[in-house]
Amino acid sequence: MKKYLMLAGIFTVLAGNAQSAGWYYEDDGYNQYEARQQYNNQDYYSKQPRYQQLPSSASRRYQERQYTRSQNMNTYQTTETNKIRPYIGLDVMTTTMDFGTGSQDWEMKNGPAEYFEDKNISANFVAGVKFNQNFGLEAFYQQSSEEEQNESWSEPIASDVNMDVDATNYLSFKAYGIDTQWYAPITQEFEILASLGLAQYDFEAKDKLTGKVASVGFTHTSKSNKDFDSLGVRLGIGGQYNITEHIALRAMARYIHMKDDEYIKSMTELSLGLRYMF
């Protein structure tokens, strides 16, 4: 009986080894275990997401900047939409005048008063309020320089006697008014502006004449002034670059039509200035 039991045990062990060997080897010696592992590995990797090439460092930086700019722009627009911001500013301006028919006779004495310089340099002081990112109001006071122009001519005053005349003409103006401002943000830093306003313009024209008669040693000097004013309708367009949260650089081109155009029909202005936002 013991012999039978021993034989059964040996047979069982051999059968188990043979079955195990079947997982590893066939008659031709092929390693099925390795094949199974290779198949499993292929199946595992085939289920993983495909490898995607990472963007270059320059591309990543560009994408980060674009994302940051977009986030900042959204924040800026959200903030500016409901924020009231007062500001002050200063502009330097060049003004070109278109004279009317009345400028040929300024009711001045002793000379042709039509010879005035048609270009002025002026300073513009402003105080305004930006109610939101699209709308604001701006009050201003403008003072021009006193530009002069010299003319000379000769006038007969008697037979064979002429008077040599030297004329110096001065023209200046001051203005004050209010402009409505419309803003169109393009980026966080840059926005386009359009304006419509009214202003009172006060002009002052001066004339200084010096007449000389060399043959008799005669010299005479006379002066005269002419003041006039007009209401002007102002149309403007320009741009503003926000350097920081509080400081902005503004450039504008403006056309002014005079209601009383006897002396000055219209003016065109170019300005460059700074704004300080509170």
What report would you give on this structure?
The chain has 278 residues and is α+β, with helices and mostly antiparallel strands. It has 2 domains: 2-46; 84-277, Porin (Beta Barrel). It is 23% helix and 54% strand. The chain has an 8-stranded antiparallel barrel with strand order 1-2-3-5-6-7-8-9. The model is unreliable at 18-35 and 107-113 (pLDDT under 50).
Query: Structural class of the secondary structure composition?
Result: alpha+beta
Number of helices: 3
Q: What's the architecture of the largest domain in CATH terms? A: Beta Barrel
Please give the share of residues in helix.
Answer: 10-25%
Shape: elongated
Domain count, please report it.
2
> Care to count the β-strands?
9
pLDDT averaged residue by residue = 78
CATH topology value of the largest domain? Porin
N-to-C SSE string, H for helix and E for strand: HHHEEEEEEEEE
Distance between the termini: 110 Å
Report the C-alpha radius of gyration, rounded: 45 Å
Main sheet: strands, sense, barrel: 8 strands, antiparallel, barrel
Going across the major beta sheet, what is the strand order? 1-2-3-5-6-7-8-9
Text of the CATH class of the largest domain: Mainly Beta
Weakly predicted, low-confidence segments: 18-35, 107-113
Tell me what portion of residues adopts beta-strand conformation. Answer: over 45%
What is the element layout, followed by pairings?
Blueprint: H1 2-24, H2 32-46, H3 57-81, E1 85-99, E2 119-130, E3 135-144, E4 147-158, E5 161-185, E6 190-213, E7 218-242, E8 247-258, E9 264-277
Antiparallel strand pairs: 1-2, 1-9, 2-3, 3-5, 4-5, 5-6, 6-7, 7-8, 8-9
